[in-house]
């Protein structure tokens, strides 16, 4: 089904961890492959006679031949995408030795036909014909005539296709479906109440997004548009030999959907109720009826950040497949249709699982994968990891959605009236389809959710005395009364911190349709509600809150105004059950690196201790000038002044301190004195007045304590006729320190130059030299690292990696001082900042203290004029303007962002994005202004 707007609904984002390799720490040099594009015409339809032209690319690894055929992978894309959406994954698989066939599904991109929504007679039969095509290729390994050795991999829409294909065609050897569905009727009409009507509440926002993606490519054939910039898909082109789908222009409201499907959606969108034809068609488009026929081993990958296809869909797939004894494994990750691919450490984990699955069942070269269940949760923020870091866990057996244990919390509160407004507007927000990742990274996180006053009731627990790791589907009982005998409600669980800020784990909500209700709450019977499964830690001191609301922008609600009465449990209180699960942590590459580093540091420390003990008497005879109060402080700068001949004063009275564990940014406009300060610190020039201490030792040219300092100040300088690794070795020997005191392996890993470290430096680009220079500065793991513009010449991925390296480096008592003119990098990398202007320090301290809490916020909304009018009238708002991208730039003044979002929702304005303005720039300009000097000193 749909992927997300952050990656072609899943086309890019849903392949989330699509198949890379068999390990995640060291990647082999990619093997060459050939990629051949072709139009393959297959015959499908109920009678198997309807021709449809499919746009394909066949990736064949080098070395594959009739004498050495390669195992194959059939690679399906997400809804709204094309073969191009999975090209990177196909290339990755081809480098691993698989013959990969990627294709654009019927109704999308340059392929013909109409969208039939994974109908067994159409899309699934198309895929069967592609299996025939693979079996006919002499370079593809076969198990029998017409039977290729093949795994099927796909995300979302492609994942459901993979499952259905495996259920209908026993030639499939392994399946890896990702963030996909079990029953499309339940996914789009979910019902969370036990004993309620079978048909739940229509998930209108996701359905509209999905339908829009199927109709957006409408246009004349051969219009010269080329790739569709909005969708990332290919526009059909008559010149490519791909015929225009029949009826494509006849009804622009339906786009490339089959007319019968289009009519079903239109009825459903208008009424919010599915008729028998719609339910039957949605279930026909689901893997559920075919799962009992699957004999190929299945790795089910599902995302916890997914309001389209939540974890329950993978659970239902597991139970149906496992019941027949087919090998099946479940892996949950932090990504999904809302959350995108998730942190790098998490996608690496999924890549490893996928590679192991295909390597055993398709290549048949690896040991059998375990049946263990793995999951992960976001553990915090980390530089370079998409802003987040995830911790993975595993247990031997998959426990389902009920966990292995349970924590019962009492939630309480009296019954309350709640109103469903006319037409369901204004409506509360639980999640914005496909924008969960945007909200999480915007700085407001779950605060973008909002409930409307008078439309919801809350019931709280007592504060927790210890943390609870919830892994599974929470359960709670509610009561409701309605004058109409029916009610549509939305039940959700919030995590409320001690300050009162509430977050909604995963943006998940349980839609409930209740019938046969009494008019009086006293006569209402308790109804158990199973909330969507979550992976979330409720910290000690926080409390849980159950919210029962009448509206939600993501769902269809009754259009008639009505007031319900809702309550909790049977006597103003109820037990909220949180499923719990305790597993073994899975080490990441970063953690392994840290363990190795700690071990090396321990070894060095032991060696130093031995030397100290053996030479103690001699050391006592040596006169040491050290200021005891600063013996444990990496850097103290006092009254630093530098005057050049001619009277030019570069720095005057500079004072600052760098403590252990800090990454300190030295900021200032050109000519502020940054580089002069660093040159003095490195002993490259003498100060006119003042001094600098490193661990209590006064600095000066040639000072012995400089051996504890690593630096990159004057820019990278190497011998061009030597290789990168030889330059590092020559530098280390020049220091007079023994080879075993250098950390060459770690330094080369930091450089990230691969085999290029063995090339002559004279062939390096500036960026490569910069990376080698940074590795040289870190070669001895010095206690203080001083870097001047370390990201100069690096591309964005390398800059992101550098952030992580610097933050990781400032551990175990080490510290980093980094000078940069890139405010965004300093804000994301540094814990503290020093701002110099005209040779003097104008501000210093933690970044948060320097920055403050800027109220300026960007809003992307559906109705800009209405939003401006609302903000103009809102008390406390300082200013509102429109930038050149049609975003509102609002100085909220004293108005909290959450209150502003709620006000927009109440005004009926659709909120698409909320992003705090980058704040360090504001603070910097306020301190130094926008004029800079042109002395050339930085």
TrEMBL record:
InterPro entries: AAA+_ATPase, AB_hydrolase_fold, ABC_transporter-like_ATP-bd, ABC_transporter-like_CS, Galactose-bd-like_sf, P-loop_NTPase, Xaa-Pro-like_dom, Xaa-Pro_dipept_C. Keywords: ATP-binding, Hydrolase, Membrane, Nucleotide-binding, Transmembrane, Transmembrane helix, Transport. It comes from the Bacteria. One of its GO terms (molecular function) is hydrolase activity. Pfam families: ABC_tran (PF00005), Peptidase_S15 (PF02129), PepX_C (PF08530). Residues 217-249 are annotated as: Disordered. Residues 635-863 form the ABC transporter domain. PROSITE patterns: ABC_TRANSPORTER_1 (PS00211), ABC_TRANSPORTER_2 (PS50893). SUPFAM superfamilies: alpha/beta-Hydrolases, Galactose-binding domain-like, P-loop containing nucleoside triphosphate hydrolases. The chain crosses the membrane at residues 592-615. Residues 226-241 have a biased composition (Low complexity). Belongs to the ABC transporter superfamily. This is Alpha/beta fold hydrolase.
């Amino acid at each position: 089904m749909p992927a997300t707007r952050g990656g072609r609904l899943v086309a890019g984002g849903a392949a989330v961890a699509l198949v890379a390799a068999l390990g995640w720490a060291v990647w082999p040099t990619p093997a060459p492959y050939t990629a051949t594009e072709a139009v393959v015409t297959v015959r499908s339809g109920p009678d198997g006679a309807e021709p449809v032209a499919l746009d394909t690319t066949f990736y064949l690894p080098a070395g594959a031949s009739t004498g050495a055929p390669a195992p194959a992978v059939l690679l399906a894309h997400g809804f709204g995408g094309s073969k191009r959406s999975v090209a990177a994954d196909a290339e990755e698989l081809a480098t691993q030795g698989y013959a990969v066939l990627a294709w654009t599904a019927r109704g999308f991109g340059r392929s013909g036909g109409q969208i039939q929504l994974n109908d067994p007679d159409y899309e699934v039969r198309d895929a069967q014909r592609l299996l025939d095509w693979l079996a006919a290729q002499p370079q593809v390994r076969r198990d029998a005539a017409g039977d290729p050795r093949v795994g099927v991999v796909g995300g979302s829409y492609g994942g459901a296709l993979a499952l259905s294909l495996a259920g209908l065609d026993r030639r499939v050897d392994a399946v890896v479906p990702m963030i996909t569905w079990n029953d499309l009727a339940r996914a789009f009409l979910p019902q969370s109440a036990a004993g309620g009507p079978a048909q739940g509440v229509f998930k209108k926002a996701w359905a509209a997004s999905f339908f829009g993606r199927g109709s957006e490519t409408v246009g004349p054939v051969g219009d010269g548009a080329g790739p569709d910039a909005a969708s990332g898909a290919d526009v059909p082109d008559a010149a490519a030999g791909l015929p225009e789908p029949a009826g494509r222009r006849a009804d622009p409201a339906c786009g490339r959907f089959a007319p019968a499907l289009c009519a079903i959606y239109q009825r459903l969108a208008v009424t919010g109720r599915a008729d028998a034809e719609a339910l039957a068609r949605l279930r026909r488009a689901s893997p559920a009826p075919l799962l009992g026929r699957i004999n190929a081993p299945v790795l089910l990958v599902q995302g916890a950040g997914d309001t389209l296809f939540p974890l329950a869909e993978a659970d239902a797939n597991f139970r149906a497949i496992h019941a027949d004894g087919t090998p099946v494994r479940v892996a949950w990750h932090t990504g999904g249709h809302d959350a995108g691919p998730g942190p790098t450490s998490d996608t690496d984990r999924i890549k490893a699982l996928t590679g192991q699955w295909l390597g055993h069942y398709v290549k048949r070269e690896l040991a059998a994968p375990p049946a263990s269940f793995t999951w992960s949760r976001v553990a915090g923020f980390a530089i370079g990891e998409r802003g987040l870091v995830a911790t993975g866990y595993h247990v031997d057996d998959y426990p389902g959605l009920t966990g292995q244990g349970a924590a019962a919390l009492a939630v309480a509160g009296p019954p309350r009236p709640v109103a469903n407004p006319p037409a369901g507007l204004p409506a509360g927000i639980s999640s914005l389809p496909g924008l969960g990742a945007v909200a999480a990274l915007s700085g407001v996180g779950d605060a973008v959710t909002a409930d409307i006053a008078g439309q919801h009731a809350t019931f709280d627990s007592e504060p927790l005395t210890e943390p609870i790791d919830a892994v599974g589907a929470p359960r709670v009982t509610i009561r409701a009364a309605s004058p109409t005998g029916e009610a549509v409600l939305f039940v959700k669980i919030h995590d409320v911190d001690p300050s009162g800020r509430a977050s909604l784990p995963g943006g998940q909500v349980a839609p409930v349709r209740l019938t046969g209700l009494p008019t009086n709450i006293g006569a209402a019977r308790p109804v158990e509600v199973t909330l969507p499964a979550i992976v979330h830690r409720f910290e000690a001191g926080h409390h849980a809150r159950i919210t029962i609301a009448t509206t939600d922008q993501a769902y269809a609600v009754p259009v008639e105004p009505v007031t319900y009465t809702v309550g909790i449990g049977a006597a103003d209180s109820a037990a909220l059950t949180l499923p719990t699960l305790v597993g073994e942590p899975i080490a990441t590459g970063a953690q392994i690196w840290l363990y190795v580093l700690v071990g090396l540091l321990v070894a060095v420390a032991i060696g130093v201790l031995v030397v100290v003990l053996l030479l103690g008497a001699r050391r006592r005879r040596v006169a040491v000038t050290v200021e005891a109060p600063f013996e444990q402080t990496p850097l103290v700068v006092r009254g630093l002044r530098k005057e050049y001949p001619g009277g030019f004063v570069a720095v005057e009275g500079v004072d600052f301190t760098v403590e252990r564990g800090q990454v300190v940014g030295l900021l200032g406009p050109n000519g502020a004195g940054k580089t002069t300060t660093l040159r003095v610190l490195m002993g490259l020039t003498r100060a006119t007045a003042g001094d600098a201490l490193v661990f209590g030792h006064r600095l000066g040219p040639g000072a012995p304590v400089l051996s504890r300092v690593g630096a990159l100040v004057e820019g990278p300088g190497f011998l061009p006729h030597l290789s990168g690794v030889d330059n590092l070795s020559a530098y280390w020997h020049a220091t007079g320190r023994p080879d075993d005191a250098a950390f060459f392996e770690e330094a080369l890993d930091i450089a990230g130059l691969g085999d290029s470290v063995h090339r002559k430096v004279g062939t390096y680009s500036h960026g490569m030299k910069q990376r080698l220079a940074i590795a040289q500065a870190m070669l001895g793991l010095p206690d203080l690292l001083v870097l001047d513009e370390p990201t100069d010449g690096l591309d964005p991925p390398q800059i992101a990696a550098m952030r992580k390296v610097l933050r990781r480096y400032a551990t175990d008592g080490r510290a980093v001082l980094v000078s940069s003119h890139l405010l965004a990098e300093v804000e994301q990398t540094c814990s503290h900042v020093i701002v110099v202007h005209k040779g003097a320090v104008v501000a210093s301290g933690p970044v948060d203290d320097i920055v403050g809490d800027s109220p300026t916020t960007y809003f992307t909304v559906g109705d800009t004029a209405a939003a401006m009018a609302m903000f103009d009238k809102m008390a406390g708002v300082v200013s509102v303007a429109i930038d050149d991208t049609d975003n509102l730039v609002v100085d909220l003044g004293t108005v909290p962002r959450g209150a502003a979002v709620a006000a927009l929702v109440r005004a009926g304005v659709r909120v698409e994005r909320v992003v705090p303005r980058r704040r360090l720039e504001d603070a910097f300009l306020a301190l130094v202004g926008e004029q800079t000097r042109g002395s050339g000193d930085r």
